[in-house]
Amino acid sequence: MSNYKLLGVGTNAKTIKGDGSEYLTAILYMTPYKVMVDGKLFNSCSMAAMASCIDGCLYTAGRGKFSNVQTARQRKAEWFYRNRTSFMLQLYEDIYKFRQYCLKRDIQPCVRLNGTTDIRWELIPYIDGQNIFDQFPDVQFYDYTKIPNRKVADYPNYHLTWSYSAANPKYKEHFWDVIRNGMSVAVVFRKPVNMTTWRGYKVVDGDKDDLRFLDPQQSIVALYAKGAAKHDSTGFVQDI
């Protein structure tokens, strides 16, 4: 497989579970939440403070706890905010190479652009006003998001799963808006739980694989706390 400057393939323990003869996932990881670039502060996760997921962010899980990995993610974030045109050109090149690799093997290429961020990629134009989803209609993009009102209905190849938190009453109530709009909701539980429904909606095991676009609409995607999230007490991680 080709080497990529921005995307990682086969580096995520959960996406590997879904990789095989049908699907292969590439992920872009960058520094989450706030990052300082050339004296300016940028926020890559606009709802992180309200949802109180900063301390429990998956940024600290798995390989993310190593300083060299965090440094690499920081460099990507700086590139993104310092020279957006150059960054998008490289992202296009990476996705194109990944797509060609998959199509030659009759595998569906899947890409997560927000491995540890929550950027509205649908609002970032690339060529002639088109965004990255327009440029690669045969690539399945998907992400988790904490932004309840992202407008992606015009992009059938981009699937979003909303991430729940009970840390803030206002944020918590978005659950019903998101469900009414047909989205699935990811809920982080402290320990594995044996239940088929949560708040009246079907529960699917989100740790079984990462292929969220295959979930039925309005599913509750049960995830289990990892890294610093195991000790969360804000309301981001649920005990039941």
Explain what the structure shows.
There is one protein chain. The chain is of the alpha/beta class and 240 residues long. The chain has one domain. Helix content is 25%, strand content 22%. It has seven helices and twelve strands. The strands form two sheets. Strands 1, 2, 5, 6, 7, 8, 9, 10, 11 and 12 form a ten-stranded mixed β-sheet that branches.
The overall pLDDT, averaged over residues, is 88
Q: DSSP helix count?
A: 7
Give unreliable regions as ranges: none
- Rounded to an integer in angstroms, the radius of gyration calculated over CA atoms is 17 Å
Shape: globular
Number of strands: 12
What is the percent of helical residues?
Answer: 25-40%
* Count of spatially separate domains: 1
H/E order of the elements?
Answer: EHEEEHHHEHEEHHEEEEE
- What percentage of the residues does DSSP assign to strands (E)? 15-25%
Class from helix and strand fractions: alpha/beta
Q: State the oligomer.
A: single chain
Main sheet overview: 10 strands, mixed
Terminal-residue CA separation: 42 Å
Provide the descriptors you would attach to this structure in a database record.
240 residues, single chain, two-stranded antiparallel sheet, alpha/beta, 10-stranded mixed beta sheet, 12 strands
